[in-house]
């Protein structure tokens, strides 16, 4: 991109004023009038022009003529997206910190349950006597 002369800059700014309505600039019309390749290139030229003169789009230097962001895309320049905090895991009820452990079967408990089932099975199959295996 060749450096622009002050005359080209003035023509560009006049085109921005001419093609603005209700604080919004029609960047495609500005690009067509000034020979800029795309509407995004025209918007970027405007933003860089403001920065070069110490004016922040939408800041104290004025509204920038396009809703306050210099890019013309409808999003405010001065309200960045808030970073979401990573959710923290709650500590266990007994005060232990860290990731919760997976529940595992206790071998001793399984054997005891199996023995109880065997005893009940034998009682049901037997002739009414309390027989244990």
UniProtKB/TrEMBL annotation:
Residues 6-54 form the Myb-like DNA-binding domain. InterPro entries: Myb_DNA-bind_8 (IPR054505). Residues 74-84 have a biased composition (Low complexity). Residues 53-133 are annotated as: Disordered. Residues 56-73 have a biased composition (Gly residues). This is Myb-like DNA-binding domain-containing protein. It comes from Microdochium trichocladiopsis. The lineage of its organism: Eukaryota, Fungi, Dikarya, Ascomycota, Pezizomycotina.
């Amino acid at each position: 991109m060749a450096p622009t002369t002050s005359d080209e800059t003035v023509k560009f700014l006049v085109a921005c004023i001419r093609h603005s309505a209700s604080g919004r600039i029609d960047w495609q019309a500005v690009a067509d009038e000034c020979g800029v390749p795309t509407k995004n290139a025209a918007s970027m030229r405007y933003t860089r022009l403001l920065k070069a003169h110490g004016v922040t789009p939408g800041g104290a230097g004025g509204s920038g003529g396009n809703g306050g962001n210099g890019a013309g895309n409808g999003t405010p320049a001065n309200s960045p997206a808030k970073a979401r905090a990573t959710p923290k895991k709650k500590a266990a009820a007994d005060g232990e910190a860290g990731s919760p452990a997976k529940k595992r079967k206790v071998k001793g408990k399984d054997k005891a349950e199996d023995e109880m089932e065997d005893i009940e099975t034998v009682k049901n199959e037997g002739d009414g006597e309390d027989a244990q295996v």
